[in-house]
Amino acid sequence: MNTTAALQQAQRFRAEGRAGEAAQIYIGILKADSSNVEALFHLGVMHHQRGDLREGGKLLSLAAKKSPRDVRVLFALASLRLEEGQPISALDLAGRAVTAERSARVLTRAAGIHAEAGQMEEARSLYQEALKLEPASPEAWQGLAGVKKFTIDDPDFAALSTLAASVSHLPTPQRIKMEFALGKAHLDAGEADKAFAHYAMANNLQRAEFPHYDICKFEQYIDSAIALFDATLVDRLRGKGTVKNTRPVFIVGMPRSGSTLADQILASHPDAASIGESRALQRCIPAFENKEVPRYCPPHVPSITGQLTSGLTPERLDGIAQRYLPATEPMVRGAKRLVDKMLFNYTWVGVILLALPEAKIVHCTRDPMDTGLSIWQTFFQQPLPWAYDQRETGRYYRAYRKLMAHWEKLFPGAMLELKYEDMVAAQEEQTRRLLAFCGLPFDERCLKFHENARQVKTASVAQVRQPIYKDSSGKWKKYSQHLTALAEGLNGESR
Question: Taking Cα atoms as reference points, which of 180, 262, 192 lies closest to residue 476?
Answer without folding.
Answer: 192
